[in-house]
Amino acid sequence: MIEDNETIEEFLAQHAVDVEDAVRKAAAQEIMPRWRRLADHEVDRKSGPHDLVTDADRQAELYLTEALRALLPGSVVVGEEAVHANPASYEGIRGEAPVWIVDPVDGTRQFVNGDTGFCTLVALALGGVVHASWTFAPVREELATAVRGQGAFLDGVRLDAGSPDPARDLRVATSHPDFTTDDQKRSLLGLRTDGVAPRACGSAGLEYLAVARGESDATAFCWEAAWDHAAGLLLVEEAGGTHLTRAGEPFRITGGNDLPFTAARDEATARRVTGLLSAGA
Q1: Which key words are in the record (predicted)?
Q2: Candidates 3.30.559.70, 3.30.390.10, 3.90.330.10, 3.30.540.10; CATH matching 5-158
């Protein structure tokens, strides 16, 4: 079992490509054969009309759970669908073992609708710190990776988030209104001001990738589920960006954050967004 940062770095040096291979195979075998071919019985609703799960989600997560555990004996997997079935399994994020954080199909609604805007997210964390991440958009054939302290890459090309153009409105992807509380809605209203162009987000993983590659300026999200955020937050960090909660603290994958929070291309943008979110509240 991995016990310190030095050995987790050694594991990644030897096996990062194996993780990438597992992610690609999960998509090829369990996700893409079902894209635009889903039967009615392969789609279910969890907590509401927009909270969907499909056989692709379930089977891809099972594939990744087996493959990732085999790569790193003693590790645990916290996956969205397993936690839905057994909420107590989420505690693995706060445990002492290395944890794989998995969202098999991030953007299930888009997947069900036949859109291209979905991806598979995998992150490796230890002690509440994310050390590596993989974001794979199979239809677009894009793979973004990040290793803490080693940079972020899209298909092998280093990502640099840069800073927003001061001459244009700040582009901010926000939580969908269907998934926000009244307090969070009031906070998000702070973004409806001159110089800011908020819009409802799509796949969280792809929104983080858009920030990391400088296509979007920031996010403003209102939920904590680590499978949606862990991979993307490291990607943004390693591309030169940052993330802050409404309290002005970095987002913690272990929870207890003051929401909403932002991931942004640079610190100045992050502080601008969190200031507006606090003003809205």
Answers
A1: Hydrolase, Magnesium, Metal-binding
A2: 3.30.540.10
